[in-house]
Design goal:
The protein has 3 domains: 32 residues; 43 residues, no CATH class; 59 residues. The protein has 172 residues and is mainly α. It is built from 4 helices and 3 strands. The radius of gyration is 36 Å and the shape is elongated.
C-alpha cells in the first residue's frame, strides 16, 4: 500500500511539474504578447504625435480644395464603360488568341493604329494602315471582317465598314 502511495505521489509530482512548466510557458507567451502590444502602442503614439505636429504646422490660411464627387463618379463610370467596351470587342471581334489580352494591348496593336476615315452618306468607312507582320495583318483583317459581318450601326444611323490596307498602303 505504501508503495502504491509513493508511486502515485511520484506521478502527481511529475504532473505538477508538467503543469507548472506549461503555466510558465503560457505566462512567458503572454508577457511577449504584452511587450509586442506595448511596442506597437508606442509606435502608434509616436506616429500620432508626428501627425499632430504636421497638422499644427499647416498654414491655416491656405485654401482647401474639395473633391467634386459628381465629376469623379462620371469619370469612374466612363472608365467602366470603356473597359466593358474593350471586353465586348475582345470577345466578339478578335481572334481567340486575344481572349485574355489586356485592354492596353488591344489599344496598342489595333485602336491606336493610324489610317483613314472616309464618310459616305450611308456608311462610315475606316481603313486601317497595314501591318508589316503578316500574322498581325491577317488578324486585323479577320477582326474587320467580323465587324463588317455584324453590320455595326453608328449612333448617327450609318453602317460602319472597316478594312485593313495592304502593308504598303497602296490600296488607298
Amino acid at each position: 500500500m505504501r508503495e502504491k502511495l509513493v508511486v502515485r505521489l511520484g506521478r502527481v509530482a511529475v504532473e505538477r511539474r508538467e503543469r507548472e512548466a506549461k503555466h510558465k510557458a503560457r505566462l512567458e507567451e503572454i508577457h511577449r504578447t504584452e511587450r509586442s502590444f506595448e511596442k506597437r502602442r508606442q509606435q502608434l503614439v509616436k506616429a500620432g504625435d508626428k501627425l499632430q505636429q504636421r497638422l499644427e504646422a499647416l498654414n491655416q490660411d491656405q485654401p482647401l480644395y474639395e473633391i467634386v464627387y459628381d465629376q469623379e463618379s462620371i469619370m469612374t463610370t466612363v472608365k467602366i464603360l470603356l473597359t466593358n467596351a474593350y471586353l465586348y470587342e475582345r470577345g466578339h471581334y478578335f481572334s481567340p488568341k486575344y481572349t485574355s489580352a489586356h485592354p492596353s494591348t488591344l489599344d496598342e496593336l489595333f485602336y491606336q493604329r493610324s489610317g483613314w476615315v472616309v464618310e459616305h452618306p450611308d456608311w462610315l468607312e475606316i481603313i486601317l494602315k497595314g501591318y508589316r507582320d503578316s500574322a498581325m495583318q491577317s488578324q486585323a483583317q479577320a477582326a474587320c471582317q467580323r465587324i463588317n459581318e455584324r453590320r455595326v450601326i453608328m449612333p448617327d444611323g450609318r453602317l460602319l465598314r472597316m478594312h485593313v490596307s495592304n502593308p504598303m498602303g497602296s490600296n488607298f
